[in-house]
Design brief:
Elements: H1 2-7, H2 9-30, H3 45-62, H4 76-79, H5 83-96, H6 100-139, H7 142-150, H8 162-183, H9 195-219, H10 221-244, H11 250-272
Length: about 280
Amino acid sequence: VFIIKTLGLGPGLITWGTVALIIGWLTGFFGLFGIPSEQDQLQTPWLNVLGFVLSLCALVDSAFVTKTPAAADLSLEKLAVLPLVSSEAQAMLETYGENESERESADARVCENARKMAETGRRASGMLVAVVAGCFFGVSFLPSTWIMHHIAGASQDGLDYVFNQFCGILLASVFYFLAYCAYKNNRPAVNPEIILPGFVSGVMWAIGQACVFVAISELGYSAAFPIIAIGPGFVGSMWSVCLFKDISGWRNYVFLAAYFCIATVACGCIVASRKQQ
């Protein structure tokens, strides 16, 4: 929720999806965390590395896709709660004198500077949280993959590990919700309108997550994650552009189109570098 509020639905999904792609590729290519390296499955290693480099370029490009700010009342009185802003306003007002038009101009400049500073801070926080979320998603399938490769007689079917992970997710969700209720003194803020959509989206997410298990078990980390990561970002961006309108302007459209072009080429390079089965 925090990522979507600060970055927008599309940019948020793009950021953590690209980070997950990078984590997944590194895990499969170098054999991190006890997972066997997949380099022996590569027919053209340099093409695989090129795909990874392009993924990094796509991540950098995605940082330039900014959420369109909603219209807000940025009067100087409301911004006066910020000490730096109020002192700056006072200095500018003294400089420009008592002329009414000059004071209004000073107020407008201070308000705009304050808005930009606040927006930059929120965006930086959102990017950081999105990167952390992408890292966690990138390693969330490691336990089942590790078991497949290290436990004798372990099932090689990814679907056999879905129930275990979902039980862990449910228990963690209950724990976090109870902790939130305790923090709010048993007065949690729950919007009743999102309960049914939440269950529906949970079902769709569960289906997608199950497909991820199958993809990783069949293709491996370095090939599956590039394909997995680009899809959610594309769908989320389309929602952001067409429905929520939190991505607008030709500048954003150009960077967004460039991201998908680069990411698609990166995925193609990574997948094409593997040996044909």
